[in-house]
Amino acid sequence: MALEDAPSLGCGRSIDRIWATIDQPPDAHEEQCDQCQAARTRLQRLSEATRTLRDHDLNDPALRPRPGIKNAIMDVARAEIRRSKRIVLASTENGTTEISEQALSSLIRFAGTAIPGIHSRRCHIDIRSSSTSLATEDHPSGTTATPASAAPHLIINLRVAAAPGIDIPRTIQALRHEISNAIPAGVGINAGTINITVEDLYDV
């Protein structure tokens, strides 16, 4: 919709046009028009209130994302366009559900952002096949059930940097617990073996 097609004042000047130029000095028409001046005064109050709310939200600690969340989100985005080995989450006669190693690594690093004093770095996942053929069961129709496959056993190797002064064993235990909960909640399989290496300290 064009600015001049928007709701207008009695003088014919559109309200949207005044709003679009509210941060600029009034033009010749607005300087002489009582209706435009009144509208500018009200819109300036709205603009100031909007700016105050925006600045408040930008500086509100409660609205700030956890450290590392941007990197975690970008990792997930990159995982969608990069090829990698796939981990089978479920397999049925109708097909399989898979996840890429990068996507699962991103989930693991994101879980690490919940633990203060830890920066997750490289994550490598080995997959140990635990597929087992289950005994088939005869059905009245003469068909047999499709053998099921057990979920893979993951071996997670995560390298992290720690903040100086933290209790490293206790913090790593908390990180391992966070990851062991995040994987089943996120993708529906057990976390398997979680190896965590503290390879560096970082400045707070």
Describe this structure in words.
The chain has helices at 15-20, 28-32, 34-58, 69-81, 101-112, 168-187; strands at 86-92, 95-100, 118-128, 153-162, 193-201. It is α+β, with helices and mostly antiparallel strands. The protein has 2 domains: 8-61; 67-201, Cation efflux protein, cytoplasmic domain (Alpha-Beta Plaits, 2-Layer Sandwich). Helix 4 (69-81) packs antiparallel against helix 5 (101-112). The longest helix has 25 residues, at 34-58. The two termini are 51 Å apart. 15% of the residues are buried.
What tags apply to this protein structure?
single chain, 204 residues, alpha+beta, Alpha-Beta Plaits, 2 domains, 3-stranded mixed sheet, 5 strands, disordered N terminus
| Assembly of the depicted chains | single chain
Name of the CATH homologous superfamily of the largest domain: Cation efflux protein, cytoplasmic domain
User: Helical content, roughly?
Assistant: 25-40%
What is the CATH domain class of the largest domain? Alpha Beta
Major sheet: size, sense and barrel closure? 3 strands, mixed
CATH topology of the largest domain: Alpha-Beta Plaits
- Structural class of the helices, strands and pairings? alpha+beta
Shape: elongated
Instruction: Write down the Rg.
Output: 29 Å
Number of strands: 5
Tell me the span between the first and last alpha carbons: 51 Å
Task: Enumerate the spans where pLDDT stays under 50 for 5 or more consecutive residues.
Answer: 1-5, 131-149
Count of helical regions: 6
Relative strand content: 15-25%
Output mean pLDDT: 78
Biggest sheet: strands side by side, in what order? 3-4-5
Into how many domains do the coordinates divide?
2
Order of helices and strands: HHHHEEHEEHE
Q: Tell me what the CATH architecture of the largest domain is.
A: 2-Layer Sandwich
